[in-house]
């Protein structure tokens, strides 16, 4: 599924205790993990993540105390068993602020056998307030017993799903920003009025990719301004803002040299 499908599913359906996120690339999997985390801590009952509650805002800024990402130790080929045991201890503790504590395990397929067995113990009796998200490029490396206890989310590589029209709009918008061409920005932004919610989501993804591709052409300050703007745009898309609202925001945030 695409990230937008996952967002929709989280917004309408129930949340699982454990997910395996696979498919697409590392960056997309990490974004999916963060999306699940936001949905898990959001205070809204429906339409999560709402994008505006205290927990959503903290999650968005990467400072939510109840969301952690466990990474492999530097120079270690695998997650080790100690790290998974420590995770188990932390997961047992009640969250600080949100209803749930979220534990994202990056490169979860790189757990050695001992670590996987420790993880399995957590998944067999997950604390009711805990959500685990295992990001995995090769989920077949995980034990069948681990896999069977997780809801698997298979992401579609984004290259395959972005339409030419959206790529063109993203390229036009980024190009105009690079040239500091406010008129060009205004024209590109007009295209957003026609976009559906899913297309808006894809457009922000396309913009991010285009911004990264051309980041060498920007002064650090302008690059930061663009990236910050796209972070906010992401949040607006998650909060179900329409294309014309998103376009208005992009225009206001990117026009002028400031
Ligand atoms: Zn929220």
Polypeptide structure, described:
This protein is α/β, with parallel strands linked by helices and 258 residues long. The chain folds into two domains: 157 residues, 3-Layer(aba) Sandwich (Rossmann fold), CATH 3.40.50.300; 93 residues. The protein is 53% helix and 10% strand. It has twelve helices and five strands. It has a five-stranded parallel beta sheet with strand order 2-3-4-1-5, sandwiched between helices. The longest helix is centred in the last third of the chain and has 19 residues. The mean pLDDT is 91. Zinc ion binds next to helix 3.
Structure characteristics:
single chain; 258 residues; alpha/beta; Rossmann fold; five-stranded parallel beta sheet; 10% strand
Uncertain spans: none
Number of strands: 5
Helix content: 40-55%
Taken together, the total number of domains comes to: 2
Number of helices in the DSSP assignment: 12
Spatial separation of the terminal alpha carbons? 39 Å
Helix/strand/pairing category: alpha/beta
Summary, kept brief:
The chain is of the alpha/beta class and 258 residues long. It has helices at 3-12, 26-41, 54-60, 81-92, 113-124, 144-147, 158-161, 164-179, 182-190, 197-213, 220-238, 243-254; strands spanning 18-23, 67-70, 101-105, 130-135, 151-155.
């Amino acid at each position: 599924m695409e990230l937008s499908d996952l967002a929709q599913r989280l917004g309408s359906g129930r949340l699982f205790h454990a997910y395996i996120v696979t498919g697409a690339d590392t960056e997309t999997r990490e974004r999916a993990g963060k999306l699940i985390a936001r949905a898990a801590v959001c205070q809204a009952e429906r339409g999560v993540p709402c994008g505006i509650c205290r927990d959503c805002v903290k999650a968005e800024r990467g400072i939510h105390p109840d969301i952690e990402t466990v990474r492999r130790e530097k120079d270690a080929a695998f997650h080790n068993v100690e790290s998974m045991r420590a995770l188990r201890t932390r997961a047992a503790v009640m969250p600080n602020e949100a209803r749930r504590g979220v534990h994202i395990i990056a490169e979860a397929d790189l757990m050695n056998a001992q670590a996987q067995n420790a993880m399995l113990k957590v998944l067999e009796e997950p604390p009711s307030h805990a959500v685990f998200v295992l990001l995995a490029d090769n989920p077949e490396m995980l034990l069948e017993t681990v896999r069977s206890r997780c809801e698997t989310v298979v992401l579609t590589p984004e290259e395959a799903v972005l339409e030419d029209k959206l790529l063109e709009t993203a390229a036009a918008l980024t190009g105009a920003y690079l040239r500091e061409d406010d008129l060009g920005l205004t024209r590109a932004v007009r295209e957003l009025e026609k976009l559906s919610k899913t297309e808006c989501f894809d457009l922000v993804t396309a913009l991010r990719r285009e911004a990264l591709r051309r980041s060498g052409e920007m002064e650090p300050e302008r690059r930061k301004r663009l990236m910050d703007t796209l972070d906010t745009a992401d949040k607006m898309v998650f909060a179900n803002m329409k294309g014309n609202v998103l376009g208005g925001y992009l225009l206001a945030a990117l026009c002028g040299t400031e």
